[in-house]
Structure formats: C-alpha cells, structure tokens
Amino acid sequence: MKRNKAYDERQTLERGKAFRNAYLTLAAAVLVCFFLRDAGVHWADDFSQTIVCLWSSILVCTVQLIVRDAYDGIREGNMRIIAVIFLVCGVFMLGCEIVRASGTRFSLYEQIGVISSGLGTLTIGIVYWAKFFRDKNREQSEA
Amino acid sequence: MGRNIPIKVARAEHDMTQKQLAEAVGVSRQTMNAIEQGEYNPTIRLCRTICKVLGKSLDELFGEGDDEA
Question: Taking 90 as the threshold, does the pLDDT of residue A8 lie above it?
Fold first, then answer.
C-alpha cells in the first residue's frame, strides 16, 4: 500500500487535538445553551441555537487544522477553491443580513443562526488566506 | 523549545530544500518546517531517520544545547 507522506506523526497529533477541542467546544456550547434556557434567557430560537452550537465547534476545529497545518485530506488546489467559496458565502450571508437589518422584518432572535454561519464561513476563509500569504512570505524570506 | 539550527545547517550542507528533506524522511514539508522552527518535537524514530538522511548523529542534530532560545 502506498504511504501518504502528507499524513505523518505530527498530523495525527494535530488532528487529534483539533477534534478533541471541537468536541469540547460543542459540549460547552450545548451546556451554555441549556443553562441559559434553564435561567429563562431566550436569546435565539431552537434551530438557531443548534446552528450556533455546531458552528462554534466547526470553527474551532477548522481554524486549528488550518493554523497548525494539520492534514485535512483535501488537495491544496481544491482547498484554495473551497476557501474562496467560504469567503464569498460569508460575505453574501452577512451582506444579506445587513440588508435585511436595514428593513423592518429583522429579528436577531431568528437570524442569529444565519449570522453565525456567515461569520463562521468568513472567518475560515480569512484564516486560510492569511495563513497562505504568511507561509508564502516566510518561504520567500528563507529562500 | 527553540529553533533547531543544526538541522538547517546540515540540510544546507547537503544542498537540500525543506521539501526534499521531508520527502527523503517520509513526512510532509509542514512537519519538517515545524521541526526546524522548534514547534514540534519529533519521535525518536523520526529523529533517527533524519539523522540517517543527513549523515549526522542524534547528538549533533538533537543534542541538548543545540536549540536556539
């Protein structure tokens, strides 16, 4: 069987840390939602709360995978396309919410799920490209 | 953990890039970069492979006092 050189001992370690942190973040987010509900604080509808919890976990995991150069199983070229799509989606979602907020039919209670999705996708896109250009600069300065 | 200068020097002696060394030892370029930057402490198995490829001893590349603070 051909060995995947991109997936080495450090990658295994970094992936483990990223997924552990994602799991802990998800558990913490669910607990916070539960305690807020128990205390009678209604900050978002049920669907939005679920989206916010999921996004907090996805964001922690993805940002850590990008920043720590962990193996994500995606080819470099494909990852660049995905990062562009994330940037565009994030800007589009947040843009739509800003337009909606300027109108009368806007409720943060209902829209916080979409806003967190927009912020999440935008953050992932920004982190990926920031890391990409930082690495490129570092490579050029070391060459 | 400081930067691992001896690996960088040995790599330069062999006229190898980080990518070439990474391929020779069977890891990713990012991992080799992390080792040189002192961001990752490799296993003894990987240390030995790096030493073998660069023709140096464990002490020369990973000995105490070789790290830049």
Answer: no
ipTM of the complex: 0.77
Closest CA to A6 of A76, A81, A64: A76
DSSP state letters, A54-98: HHHHHHHHHHHHHHTT---SS-HHHHHHHHHHHHHHHHHHHHHHH
Q: A17-76, pLDDT tens digit by residue?
A: 999 999 999 999 999 999 999 999 988 889 999 999 999 999 999 999 999 988 877 887
SS3 for A18? Answer: helix
Angle ∠(B32,B62,B24) on CA atoms, nearest 5: 35
Q: Which of B28, B13, B10, B31 is nearest to A3 (CA)?
A: B28
Tokens of residue A29, six digits: 């987010």
Question: CA B38 to CA B7: how far, in whole Å?
Answer: 11
Inter-chain residue contact A11 with B34, CB threshold 8 Å: no
What residues of B are in contact with residue A69 (Cβ under 8 Å)?
28, 30-31, 33-34
Q: Two tokens at B31?
A: 């991992």
pLDDT attached to residue B69 = 46
Give the C-alpha separation, A38 to A57, whole Å: 22
By the 8 A CB rule, do A63 and A19 touch?
Answer: no
Residue A5: DSSP 8-state: T
Residue B47 sits at the chain A interface (C-beta within 8 Å): no
